[in-house]
Amino acid sequence: MSPPSHLPLSRRELLKLSAGSATTMALPAVVAAAEPDRTGARAPELMQVDFEVNGTARSLRLDTRVTLLDALREHLHLTGSKKGCDHGQCGACTVLVDGRRINACLTLAVMHQGAKITTIEGLGTPDRLHAMQAAFVKHDGFQCGYCTPGQICSAVAVLQEIKAGIPSHVSAALDAPSAFTAEELRERMSGNICRCGAYSNIIEAIQDVGEASA
């Protein structure tokens, strides 16, 4: 069927024009839907968190969704603890909370009200190294160094666990004290990944400190 003779457009041209107009009219709706409605958005919920970090009382007002790792790095500027995988799989963010090692990327800061937190900065200083830090230097227990803060914090906790009689998966007996064997230490340090592959040197450093303090 031909278009009426009084129309200046052909049928094909009319269809093209109609399709273009429909698309143009739909665009504002798509853009509007993609933009967040800030007028009705809730403000982040903030909470006061008081804890002790490396022997110093600290007080922060934080979004309740902030992880302990981000609180330490972004709010307290303690950047020794590293953000590696951010999924609790590499151990680069390991810190000590009330003497126990945890992955700081997997826990919220607000969960540790009143806790005593120790990061790599709190273990020792360049002129007064912790025994484990000195052992890592002595045995060349690092290469790039990215995982080293977490490795050292975890190693310090491992020795405390062994001394406390806490068994591991490879412990010979649940009621017998564990030894500082390479097998025992590898199992206990398995949550800390070293992409440079300095594992044998790390184990030697931990054994050195463990045997010296036994």
Explain what this protein looks like in three dimensions.
There is one protein chain. The chain has 2 domains: 81 residues, Ubiquitin-like (UB roll) (Roll), CATH 3.10.20; 90 residues, [2Fe-2S]-binding domain (DNA polymerase, domain 1, Orthogonal Bundle). A hairpin with a 2-residue loop joins strand 3 and strand 4. A 5-stranded mixed β-sheet has the order 2-1-5-3-4, sandwiched between helices. The radius of gyration is 29 Å and the shape is extended. Helix 4 packs across helix 7. The chain contains 7 helices and 5 strands; from the N terminus they run αββαβββααααα. The chain has 214 residues and is of the alpha+beta class.
Quick summary of this structure?
This is Aldehyde dehydrogenase iron-sulfur subunit PaoA. This protein has 214 residues and is α+β, with helices and mostly antiparallel strands.
Proportion in helices: 25-40%
Please describe the biggest sheet, giving its number of strands, its sense, and whether it closes into a barrel.
5 strands, mixed
The fraction of residues in strands falls at 5-15%
Indicate the CATH architecture of the largest domain: Orthogonal Bundle
Number of helices: 7
Order of neighbouring strands in the sheet with most strands: 2-1-5-3-4
How many domains make up the 3D coordinates?
2
Query: What is the average per-residue confidence, as pLDDT, rounded to a whole number?
Result: 87
| Helix vs. strand class | alpha+beta
Unreliably modeled segments = 22-34
How far apart the termini lie comes to: 99 Å
CATH class of the largest domain: Mainly Alpha
CATH topology of the largest domain: DNA polymerase, domain 1
- Rough outline: extended
CATH superfamily of the largest domain: [2Fe-2S]-binding domain
From the alpha-carbon coordinates, what is the Rg to the nearest angstrom?
29 Å
Number of strands: 5
> What is the H/E string?
HEEHEEEHHHHH
